[in-house]
Amino acid sequence: MDIFIASNRQLPIRYYVNEAIWIRRGGCTKHPQMTLPFFVEVEIKNSVNLKIIIEYIYEFQRQYKQTEIQILIKDTNILATIQEKLTNNTLTNHTITIQQL
């Protein structure tokens, strides 16, 4: 997987077929770095479409008054882009931790 997103709340699954992005329930293997109970695996074929992942996170945050999100990313370019976009625009009462996998 390219990205793991974990949260203290259940995360929705999404399939963006035209953009080649799949956000699906995590398998039975959980990475030791993840400390939150709910997670999804994100497969992305083209990093040009990262704005979809960022909008997914913002949409999720707008559903709740408070969330805690942990994002684990393999690719360093994707990591830098996501960090840049999310750390500057975090909503109040929402915590985001971004780490390299």
Architecture overview:
The protein is 25% helix and 34% strand. It is α+β, with helices and mostly antiparallel strands. Strand 2 and strand 3 form a beta hairpin. The longest helix is centred in the middle third of the chain and has 13 residues, at 50-62.
Strand content: 25-35%
Rg, nearest Å: 12 Å
Q: How many H/I helices?
A: 2
Largest β sheet strand count, sense and barrel closure:
6 strands, mixed
For the termini, the CA-CA separation is: 10 Å
- Estimate the helix proportion, in percent: 10-25%
Shape category: globular
Task: Supply the helix-strand structural class.
Answer: alpha+beta
Average pLDDT for all residues: 88
What is the H-and-E element order?
A: EEEEHEHE
Strand order of the largest sheet: 2-3-4-1-5-6
Low-pLDDT regions: none
